[in-house]
Amino acid sequence: MSEINVDDLPAPNVHQDKRGRPAAIWIVPLIAIAAATALAVRTYLRAGPTIKIVFDSAEGLTVGQSDVRYKNVPVGKITDIDISDDLDEIVATVELSRNFGKLAVEDTRFWVERPRIGVGGVSGLSTLLSGAFIGVDVGISKKRADHFIGLEKPPGILRDQRGSPFKLIAKDGGSLAIKSPVYMRREQVGSISDIALAADGHSVEIEVFIDAPYDHVVTDQALFWNASGMDVTLNSSGLRLDTQSLATVVAGGIAIGFHDPDHPGKPAKADSKFVLYDDRAHAMAVPDKERLALAMRFSQPLRGIGPTTQVDFDGIVIGNVDRVRLGFDTNTRAFYSDVDATVYPQRLGDAYDSLVIEGGQLGKSGPEMLQALVARGLRAQVRSGNLLTGQNFITLVILPNEPKTDVAMRDDTWIVPTERGGTDMIQDQIASIVAKVDKIPFDAIGGDVHEATRAASTLLGHLDHDVVPDTKKMVDQAQLAMEALREGLAAIRDNVAAADSPIQQEARTTLEQLERAAFSLRGLADYLKHHPETILRGRDSGPEPHK
Amino acid sequence: MAARDGGGALKTADELGVVACPLCELVMRAPHGDAACPRCGEHLPRVTRRSLTRCWALVLAATALYFPANVLPMMNTEQFPVRRSDTILSGIKFLWSAGSWELAALVFAASILVPLTKLFALGFLLVTSSRRSTWRPRVRTKLYRALEVIGHWSMLDVFVVSLLTAVVQLGRFASVEPGPAVLPFASVVVLTMLASASFDPRSIWVAKPAEAR
Lengths: 547, 213
What we know:
The complex is a heterodimer. By secondary structure, chain A is of the alpha/beta class.
């Protein structure tokens, strides 16, 4: 290896020494650190409070995907789902977005929103695709909380809904469900917010929420009835079908009404209790205070009479049949039917009041006064209410020609003798009408009609073949005639219209002569009027007929 | 041992006080400070603290960005109706649990192992070089060469994301969007590449002046 003399080597071109200046390269890590810090700060700021919600089941919930929505706005995400220590529940850890930390106050309610097919339509349909999410109803408290018990079903009323809740007691829930609508005058004014069997199992407690401002329309006189499904009534007044809206047919609903809409009473307090009637008829019926048992014995067949058959008095429905029992009279060896009914005398209104007053003077009670009507000819009759449907009803009428029998009350029961009539007679008449209709020889008539039709058809064919060609010829000739006529008319016009035409001159002359003749005639007439004797005697030397 | 630590018969150019122009290979006296070749004007690289400083700065910058690159989501995928955003680690976890453990291993190697190795290795080289350590310069040189080779592979994630973003755009049904971690991650890769490029392997062979003289 040869030695190299370092000093012989060329010297490099030395630049100015920059050692005093800090190297520009340090800007790079500074920027990097700044960027990393900025990202960290931003991520930290974005994170909101973390809360824990306990649910019965995590069905449909997925970590990292299911979000928490308030008014359908995502406000947080499920970051973890865990089982509680006692293995009974699940605990969902939710990270709320920073701005929505204020949602988590003490009385905030959370529930899992899943697709539900319910009454007011289908809700949560979007969750079919997106999976379930947690719904939020923000509380009114100001106190923050981070541990919540989730609801298993969406709350019926959200806190920001304005209106009032009312409680209804029903015999059964029917087809009602949460969110079933509540109608007033067939307009929806609220919905069912909760429905549950009473603790004692004897009734169903329903909570309805009436939206503002209609909650003030609900008064202490308001009547609630179940408007679910179709209300089909078939009675002696015919077929009646009632629904509130198509939705209630499927989903059920409640209707509100009043006995007397003009005097609705005072607005009811929130949470007031009401009775939920089975249907409109029950709700609207005037409360019946006094009941009276009514017994009748009919010797005729009672087709169309059964429980709920109406009993009326002079056209006013005063009660219903409770039961019909068939009996056998061993003496007369004939069957009879005993009909028991319940009537409400007060439905007779003023008439009953007068009877009661009259009875008061005689020392008799109201029912006794009614019993006394039998002596005046009161009888029960079965009548046909509706010939189409065969519905019958029982009517109490006073038949003045009936023998005056006096029947006493037994066991506080109003005993009314019966009388055949009404239906039987009508049925006989109808039978005879039907028999006559039967006798009409429809077959023969049909045959005749058929014959006539065939003859007409032949005639028409004949017309078509024979008459139509002739007619065509006639029309042609008529056209020619019309031509000739038009020419003749033109000639006549020429002759007549010209002022010096012979016809014109002759006509004028004739008219002048006629005028003169008329003048003479008038003179003669005048003369005769003054001298009628000239007809007999001839004219004397009087004045001339005209001057 | 003598050949390995460079303290034997062979002298380094630095010890002799000479440098060679990297372009025209003119041998000249070692300059003090910034200098250029007198023949061709090429900038003379120096075994100085300056090259180490540059490397240090880049490594620090890469380290700073390494955290957001791993903590923030790399990719937001939406496969209607499922929307997920994955960080590098959660993506690897997903691949692993989905059964593609080979892919998971590959992504783990390319996205976690390689950048981390590069940062640690560069840090190790820098520390030893700054202290003019004499510890196994050959091993360290091999390490440096290895760094240059594996560095090519660390952009894998960025490639995957940019490719998927361009390919998977099916409107509402499926889409892939780059997450906020892509930029820091790409920066980490670029910065480590620049750092390893700016590292002068000769500094490995510059022994402490006290021992050399």
